[in-house]
Amino acid sequence: MRLKNKVVLITGAARGIGEATAKRFAQEGATLILTDLHEDALNELKQLLAPGDHSISTADVTDAAAMNALFERIDEAYGQIDIVINNAGVTADSTLAKMTEDQWDLVLNVNLKGAFIVGQAAAGYMKKQQSGVILNAASIVGLYGNFGQSNYAASKGGLISMTKTWAKELGKYGIRVNAVAPGFIETEMTAKMPEKVLANMKNLSPLNQLGSPEDIANTYLFLASDEAQFISGAVISVDGAATL
Q1: Distance in angstroms between the alpha carbons of the first and the last residue of the chain
Q2: Which residue from 226, 64, 44, 27 is spatially nearest to 13, judged by alpha carbons?
Q3: Angstrom distance (rounded) from CA 92 to CA 94
Q4: Using an 8 Å Cβ cutoff, are 66 and 73 in contact?
Q5: Of 70, 176, 171, which Cα lies nearest the Cα of 114?
Q6: pLDDT tens for residues 11-28?
Q7: What is the pLDDT of residues 195-221, one digit of tens each?
Q8: Which residues lie below 8 Å from residue 95, measured CB to CB, with a gap of 6+?
Q9: Annotated catalytic sites, by residue?
Q10: Which domains does the chain have, with CATH numbers?
């Protein structure tokens, strides 16, 4: 198993890509700490995981005190934190002309500030142990923009730049930092979209299909594993060639 004896924190773990990643990592022997604001969904997910010393928390990624306390508990319980996946994220779409400050603040706070808070806390512990992996959930929208998503594009573009900066700063401590940029992924959100919209999304890819949460989970798994020991500062697009 590729993640045996590894302690892994996944934010935004209750649904979608986070859920798929938790299941995949548990299969590979990881010990998981799963965070999300949806406690019921976290409890349900925990019951579905491969056996292990897994735990859940409803700590808010935008609350620095709560996240620092969570990392302290992880350190006390396990004495290590090997992999952190900054997966928590939200959308609040609107065109530039109609977007409110509340929409802007919500998305930037969760997607960018939240990742900063978690990454900063993780780096402190990983420096002490001289090893670690931080993986950030970017998006092709952060690379190429998207209509009606000024806030989301800005948050993911900022996260990509932050990923590269962290890779430069933390490499000397044995810490690798990478980002995954999903394309259009089949989730609960896309399932509610009109069939015409889904067809247009599929047509953007030469493969003529949407990706699955498992596609992203498998990419995270590779980047988290020792097989990717010389990969840092990378942004891996998983989009079915939609952006070519």
Answers
A1: 35
A2: 44
A3: 7
A4: no
A5: 70
A6: 999 999 999 999 999 999
A7: 887 788 888 899 989 999 999 999 999
A8: 147, 148, 150
A9: 152
A10: 7-186+213-232 (3.40.50.720)
